[in-house]
């Protein structure tokens, strides 16, 4: 299991191009050139974005068996799970707060 920092995931996904890369990879693995073309950025710019996503462990890369120069990028499940767990905690907190507020209002109305 990969140790994923939710703060780091949010940090790297603050950039719209990197969010677009994550969305593109959500449909399936792609090569860097395909990602650059689909995102409308230059190959060097895409390379920088991919390095950042790789360092944050949001994506992984694999070499193509027939051509070691070609890398295919894919999403890693761990960052999504970590962010979802964090969101679940936030939602549980707000559900608890809203429940307490509802109970308070109902008690005041019945008084």
UniProtKB/TrEMBL annotation:
PROSITE patterns: HTH_ARSR_2. Residues 1-98 form the HTH arsR-type domain. It comes from the Bacteria. GO terms for molecular function: DNA binding; DNA-binding transcription factor activity. It holds the Pfam family HTH_20. Keywords: DNA-binding, Transcription, Transcription regulation. The keyword Transcription applies. InterPro entries: ArsR-like_HTH, HTH_ArsR_DNA-bd_dom, HTH_MetalResp_TranReg, WH-like_DNA-bd_sf, WH_DNA-bd_sf. PANTHER family: TRANSCRIPTIONAL REGULATOR, ARSR FAMILY, TRANSCRIPTIONAL REPRESSOR SDPR. This is ArsR family transcriptional regulator. It comes from Kribbella amoyensis.
């Amino acid at each position: 299991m990969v140790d994923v920092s939710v703060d780091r995931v949010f940090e790297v996904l603050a950039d719209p191009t990197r969010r677009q890369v994550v969305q593109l990879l959500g449909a399936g693995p792609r090569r860097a050139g395909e990602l650059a073309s689909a995102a409308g950025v230059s190959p060097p710019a895409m390379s920088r974005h991919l390095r950042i996503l790789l360092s944050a462990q949001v994506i992984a890369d694999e070499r193509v068996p027939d051509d070691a120069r070609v890398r295919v990028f894919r999403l890693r499940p761990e960052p999504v799970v970590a962010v979802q767990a964090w969101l679940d905690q936030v939602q549980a907190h707000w559900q608890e707060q809203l429940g307490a507020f509802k109970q308070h209002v109902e008690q005041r109305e019945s008084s």
